Amino acid sequence: MNKLLPLPNDYDINEWFVLGSLALVMTLTLALPKRFAKIEIYYIWLFNAFLSLTVDLIIAVPPYDMYDISDNPSMELIDLLTYFLLYPPAGYLAMYAYDLWKPHGYRVLGFVILCALVSWGLEFLAWKTGVFRYKTWRIEYSVLVYIAVYALNVRVLQFARRHSKKEALRVET
To answer: Cβ distance 71 to 17 under 8 Å?
Structure first.
């Protein structure tokens, strides 16, 4: 029987790595005190889910087909969980740290680079456990991608913050 989003046939190290990562980021996300308005959380969450899914749909399938995700080149349920329950909270945690530390000027660049290096290290572990199976992609490319991702996350948070403040003013009047 062909399922739309099948479960993996075997749970090996790559599925356990994803499930463990999911548990870790979701636990951290839910355990932290609230810092953001709901609209800001939605913006961060949806941006990261949309961005990761879109990028993978562009470069991980033909004509580029630079890598496969997990054991199966087709999408499985665990891949969908990665897009909606792993990447968004990772972006949320980074923006939580950004909001907590409030870097300015060149420190924003340092923060973005730090986040990119942490994500690159986590991707390296994911690659070693078989979550990603590179064809023409090289892990070195990911550092630049993560710098762009976290710089965009900062801009999305700033946009969401402006939007939530305008909404708060509209409700007060």
So the answer is: no
